[in-house]
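Changelog note: in this version the structure field was regenerated for every chain. One regenerated record is shown below for reference.
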Amino acid sequence: MPLVEIESLSRRFGSLRALDDLSLDIAEGEWVAVTGPSGSGKTTLLNLLAGLDRPSAGRVRVGGLDLAGLGNRELARYRQRTVGLVFQQFHLIPYLNAFENVMLAQYLHSTTDRGEAEEALRQVGLGERLDHLPSQLSGGEQQRVCIARALINQPPLILADEPTGNLDAVNEAVVMTLLADLNRRGHTLVLVTHDPTIAGRAGREIRLEHGRLAQLEDPGSAELQAVLVELWRALEEDGRPVPVTGRGIADLLSQGLLAFAEGRIAFTDRGRAQAAAAVRRVRLAEALLAKTLAPGAVPGQCGRAAPVAAGIEDQVCAFLGHPALCPHGRPIAPAGEGCCPPSAGAVDGDLQAP
C-alpha cells in the first residue's frame, strides 16, 4: 500500500480552486518533487499532507490514516508522529539557541532527551553550534537546525517547501545533500521547488497547474526519445558540448532531465537513466532490422530507427542473442541498462540478415 494516497482532492478558498480533483499515490521511501508556477497549489498540497489544512472535498490518507476524519487533537498527534516539516522561512524561536529550538520541538513531540537533540544537530553538522542563537547562524545553518528539528521524531514523511529558496549555492548543496541522505535512509520526501535542477534529483516529478496534475511529456514519445538519443551521443559518447538553444533543451531542463552547471549542459541522474533506456530501445530496433530484414533496412545514421516499444526490449535483446553493438558499432546497452551480459556464443556486431 502506498504511504500517501490522495483521492479526488479539492481545496477551495471562496471561488478560487487551489486544488481541483487531484488524485495520486506516493510510495514509501519515494522522493517526489512538486513543481509548477506560483499559485498552482503546491503549498496547499503540502499543508493538506501535513494536516495543517483540511480539504474541501476528497481524501488524504497517510499510512492508511484518513486525515479528513481526524479532530484537531488527533491531527496534532499525527504531525508529532508522522510528519517532519522544513520550510523556506526557518521559523526558529529567535531567543532560543539551536539546541533549545530542537529541544522545544522534541518536547512538543514526546519527551525531551538532551542526547537525542545533540545527536540530531551533530547529524546536520552543527555539533559545535549548539549554543548559538539563530541570529548568530548563517541561513544555511538555520535551515540545518530546521532539518534537525524535523528529524527529532524520526518521521516517515518529510515535507519540504522550497527549503533552499533563501540559500546561496554552497548552503543549497549542503541542505540538498542532507535531504537526499534522509531519503536514502528510508524517509519519504515530498519537496516543493521552482528549481528544475533540484527537481531533477528526485525520483519523480509531479507538476501542478491550476490545481491539477499537468502531463509531463511522455518519456516514451518518439520525439523525446530522439532528442535523448542525440544528447546521449553528444554528451556521453562523443564528449561534445550541447548549446542551450538546441532542440528540446529548454523543455528537458524544465522537466529536470538536464541541468546547466559550470557553463555546460549535462544529464541529471533521472535524465541519464531515461536517455540510456531510449538509446537501448533505438539500437535494439536497428539490430532487429539488420537481423530479420537486411543491413540496408537500417538507417544510415545511428539512432534514426523507430525504437522498439518500452517493456519488450529484454525479449528483443534475448531474441538477438544479446548483441553488444548496434549495426553502426555503438554500444546497444549503456552501462547498467542491459537485461543480462552478452551470451557466450554472441559475437559483437554479428547482425547480418539470415
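Spot check on this record: The chain has a mean pLDDT of 81. The first strand starts at residue 4 and ends at 13.
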